[in-house]
Batch of 4 targets.
Target 1
Amino acid sequence: MMKKVFRSTVAAFLMLALSTALFSCAMFEKDAGDGSREPLPDDSQYSQEEVYASLIGLLRTEIERLRTEQNADRNAYSERIAALESELAAVKDSSGSSSPSSSDSTASPAGTDEKAFTYTIDDGKATLTGYMGESDIVTVPEKLGGCPVVAIADDCFRAKVRLTSVILPEGLEKIGWFAFFGCTSLKNVTVPASVTSIGYDAFTNCPKVVISCASDSAAERYAKSYGITYSAIPG
């Protein structure tokens, strides 16, 4: 019932708007080609179907405009983050602050320290939400907070321009939208066969990336659909 009332209201509004616009145009006249003037046609020639067709065209145009603006904003955002990450890396390299000290000899292997990751836990399962470490080679632990890691959240590694290699753990099931978007230095991501879902544009703007995955896995199918280079590993 509510849908019928809504559609009737929209149709009435559109007819009123179109009638008003055409009435305004009728105040003017157009050249008939022989020096005389003739009035513009009134709105009586427009059927309800034509009004709906006009509305559909206008709405589609507006949707495409908004999508274009959204993508432009998203790309500008990613480029800005990438630029800041590069600047930060350059400053750290020049200051030597990223060089390991002798006290680090017993630290966890590069990119595996649990303190470098942010995550959430729900129903005894962990979702990786971010990486705060400085290593360019990352091995995601199978467990965080004592719980198995089953998902990589949306935007988790987004614009981490220093990353060159990421190994995802066995038991992982899902990789979120834009998870590695803009990782311009990323060369290899190892995706286990347990992954069954990979989100939209997860590896977009990663021009060097190769996905290592099992044959006929979700990761291989994803790589093929996006034209991403992949290499087969034992499933």
Target 2
Amino acid sequence: MKLQIGEQLSHELSYKLGIWLVTILVAVNQFMIGAMVPKAQGSSNTLKSIKALFTTQGASAREIIATKINPDGRTTAVVKQPTITEVPAEPKGLDAVEAAKIVMIATGTPFYAPPGISFDDPVGALAAWQPFEDQIQLNGDLQTRWEKIVSTMTCDYCCGGPTRVTAINNCGCRHAKAYRSIAKHILQGYGGQYTDEEILGELQRWKGVWYPKGVIEDYLLATGRVDALGHQTHGGAGADGMHGVAVSH
């Protein structure tokens, strides 16, 4: 009887600790989103002179600004990547940071997500996606495609260094496992409908809900408005910390 009571208390303690951990993670995620406010007008001239690689997202489209590994295998560039789900346009009348949030932070429930998984619950989704990598077994061409995708997708904001990017097939973080799981799930159910590039773009949409500040900084950099928020260097960002984006003279 004492053993049973002890086991019950242990389970209750583990459950309460798990709830607290999830609560803390949610709070951190929301703080990151809320902390993204425009910089003061005193931003440096260097930041204000970044050239725009792409125009702003003027209309809803199935494409997103993303990071893509360079041929050197160590750094990334910011590119336009096709997606599976539609990315909204920038709304009129908002400052650059608030508008970028609308574009880069996905909301709602994508059609391919299993029940209970949503962009609106980043922490819950992170946990819920985890088992799929081990549960799903792909064969033949689908397995080959999955191996290519996970060797190409990068884990920019928590792993590696500016000149040493980490691909998700070589990363032990929970986000990398979730990306690998999502890719398997999409390939299993929709592999004949979408290309590898579209699946990579869709993984970037999940990157936005898990690392909102990083993807918004990259979006503003790519659209020539880095002065609105600045750009913190991260995995694959290069020696200059800004993906080699040119500075106008």
Target 3
Amino acid sequence: MTDPQNPADPAQQPPANVPPPPADAAYSGAPAAAPAYGAAPPAPYGAPAAAPVPGKTLGIVAFILSFFIQLVALILGIVALVQSRKAGHKNGWAVAAIIISAVLMILGIILFFAIVLPLLTFSGEVLQACQAVDFSGTVEVRGLPVDCSSVSN
């Protein structure tokens, strides 16, 4: 048997055509692992690490205003959407504000022409009919009796 402690023994020497294992790492026969990467570099000076989406706050404001002041909300929603798209982000608040304010504006215009305008023209007709009878008695306007004493001139 050979002595494992004796390096001069030729039976213990590795063959000449096999490269020796690396000196700094133990050779396990497995491929070397990929190097681990560190965290992302910090944000540039003056920039917050997690920058907010441009136009998001304006989109939320436009969404809230879309229920009360539709024209202002429509304009703010479009501005917020343009800001977000330029930065490459989506802005659901701005889209919702645009849709809601546009729908409510259209409904407001329809209601104006369906309710308010006929009431205004009816009151004008009542005033003319009562002027014709010197605001005394009852007149009929559009098939409805109107007491002219309650109409002020």
Target 4
Amino acid sequence: METTASTVELIDDELVGNVARAALFAALMGAFAYVSFPYPLSPAPVTLQVLGVFLAGLLLGPTWGTFAMVLYLLAGALGAPVFSGGSAGIGVLLGERIGYFLSFPIAAGAVGLIAHGRQVRDLAERSTSRLVGAMLVGMLLIYVLGVIGLAARTGMSPTQAVLVGAIVFVPADILKIAAAVGIVRSDRLAAV
């Protein structure tokens, strides 16, 4: 009696890899949220989360960078302590930082789209000015949505919200752009 074995591919390997990378970036965002410093000039703390948004867009591209940020927000909303200071829950997500949180998937998608186009490309083929421009657009989206949410949730005037919700963060976020460029231009990522 002869037996024939056959294999069935249930899920495409590329899809599994992309979902795994997105989950890894969602977890990285949670870790970046623990690097949190209260900022006396703003109700929003200084964290490394914006760096995570930039890296998700640059390294995963528009679709999977967006998906990673959605996973991150979903995990936090469901109670995983992945927001700044180890906070979690729908109340935190819908609080005064709602605009920043909701901007993360949009900004990661925009960074990925500008850096890569619709198809993920080798970042070595992309100019540094293109990458910086992509992150500046992402930063602007985070600020615009963050300021709108901050003003809506706190009752601040638009001018005050722009000052404490965006302007005060510019120097730190410029350093995060420089760090992201250094990371994606590093030879260490070539092995990944």
